Structures are given as structure tokens and as C-alpha cells.
Amino acid sequence: MADTSAASPLGDAGDPVAGDVLRVRDLAVDLGGARILHDVSLDVRSGEVVAVLGTNGSGKSTLMRALVRAVPVAAGQAEILGHPLGGRVPWHRIGYVPQRVSLAGGVPATAREIVASGLLGPRRLRRPRDWRDRVDQALADVGLPGVGDHAVTELSGGQQQRVLIARALVRRPDLVLLDEPLAGVDLPSQVAFADTLRALVASGVTLVVVLHELGPLADMITRTVVLRHGRVVHDGPPLAPAHGHDDPAHEHLHAHEDAVERGPVSLGPEPFCAEI
Ligand SMILES: Nc1ncnc2c1ncn2[C@@H]1O[C@H](COP(=O)(O)OP(=O)(O)OP(=O)(O)O)[C@@H](O)[C@H]1O
């Protein structure tokens, strides 16, 4: 269990695994001289599966990047696992998979080496004894059994994405932040990946997932947060398909203006298109 003795600017976080895993208050991020996130507040409790939705450029990736300190916070506060963002956060208990990036550049490495690097950290410079079994299991969990010896340059973009997801999962994290994990992944692999996430959630892992389409993850999502122009415009139960959107032929990727224009945050079930 994490040391929660540090004073919390957001109040008593209590047991971080039994309670809030993530607490965000009035978070603002500036990039390129512009405010990208405005007053974002969000609590994620242990065991939740939170989908972060929103149109292109609404700030979803920026929020995730701010939470892992990849971009600076201009205002507001955030806590992960009971600790303010900073060196005391137990980063080894957090798995983060950025939006699709290519692994093709740089030093050639095998998929196994990439995944094994997830077992290392500033305070853990040696791989555990069972590293090879853990790495191979993580690769199997993302639908890539047997590719451990392949150079990542030989893998497709979607397979590279799954190698990065395996790298996050091999840490056996308590909190997993995934930025568009389904992008570029074929449907059978999405289904296999959803099964892996379901098993993780059953074991107590908390998920925050940026998505454009809910896909095979739809039935496991417990809450949706919708961003628009860098602000939270919906934070509540999973979005129900709006009128006509449960038609399998409907594939629009948009928030319904009548729902998002009503106010900054709506807590009730809203008639959003589930495929924002
Ligand atoms: N490094 C940067 N410098 C300046 N502006 C940036 C930077 N990174 C992102 N932005 C801008 O911030 C806004 C939000 O981008 P972000 O990638 O967070 O959106 P998103 O909701 O994840 O979009 P998408 O669904 O397309 O991935 C966009 O207008 C983007 O152009």
C-alpha cells in the first residue's frame, strides 16, 4: 500500500486503493501560449473504468499527459494514489500508454525488450527473476503471443501499440491510463484486449481510457467524462445511445449539441451518442 502520510492539498485522501485513485481539481494546462485545459475537476475511485471522450482537439490526450507530468500544469491540483503529482507518486503502480507512437525509430529492440523495460524504474534497476514469464504473459494478454523475439520494426503500427500496452500491463499496475488503445487495432485483437482489461478490472485495477469509439470496451465502462474545448461538459454514468444511435449502421463520432450546450457539467444520464 502506498505511503499516504504526505499532507494532501485536496484533503484527506484516505486509503488510496479503497477510495479515490485520482483526484483532479481545477486543472489548467497551457501549451504553445494557449490555454488547452480549463478548470478540469475529476475524481476516479478504485475499480472504476472511466472513458474520456470528446471530439478531436478537445484536450483528452493533454489531460492524460498532464497526469503523468509529460506537460506542465499551469493551475489547479492533481493527486494520484493519494499523492500530489510529483516524485512521491508511486509511478511503478501506474501504467500509461500514450496515443499511438511509432517504435520504429532509434535503437532496434525486440518486443520482449520493450515490454521488459516496463519492469524497470528509477528505483528498480534490475528485472525481477520471473521477468521473462511476465513479459511473455503480457504479450499474450494483448494478443501477441510468440512475438517476443521479433524486432519491433518488423511489427505493424497496431502491433507496436499493443507492445506498448503490454509494457504498461507487465508492471501489474493499480491504475492504467490508456490513450486511444483501440486505434489501429483490428477487431479480433480489440476483443482480446477487452478481455484482458476485464480481467484486470476484476482484479481491482482502475482504468482511465481515452476513446473515440467504445467498441468492445462498451460494456465495462462505468462512467464517462466528456471534454469539449478543454472543459468537462459531462461527468456521469456511461452514455446511453441517443435516439437512433443504437442502430448498428450509425457510426457518427460526435457529441450531441443539445446535451453538451446545457451546462458545464451534467450528472444525469444524457442522450449522448455513445460513439463520440
Ligand atoms: N505541444 C503543443 N503545443 C501547442 N498546442 C498543442 C500541443 N499539444 C496539443 N496542442 C493543442 O491542444 C489541443 C488539444 O489537443 P489534444 O491532443 O489534447 O486533443 P485530443 O482531444 O486528445 O485530440 P485527438 O482526439 O485528436 O487525439 C489541440 O488544439 C492541440 O492542437
From TrEMBL:
The keyword ATP-binding applies. Pfam families: ABC_tran. The keyword ATP-binding applies. It comes from the Bacteria. One of its GO terms (molecular function) is ATP binding. Keywords: ATP-binding, Nucleotide-binding, Transport. Residues 22-254 form the ABC transporter domain. SMART domains: AAA. SUPFAM superfamilies: P-loop containing nucleoside triphosphate hydrolases (SSF52540). Residues 236-258 are annotated as: Disordered. Residues 243-258 have a biased composition (Basic and acidic residues). This is Zinc transport system ATP-binding protein. It comes from Flavimobilis marinus. The lineage of its organism: Bacteria, Bacillati, Actinomycetota, Actinomycetes, Micrococcales.
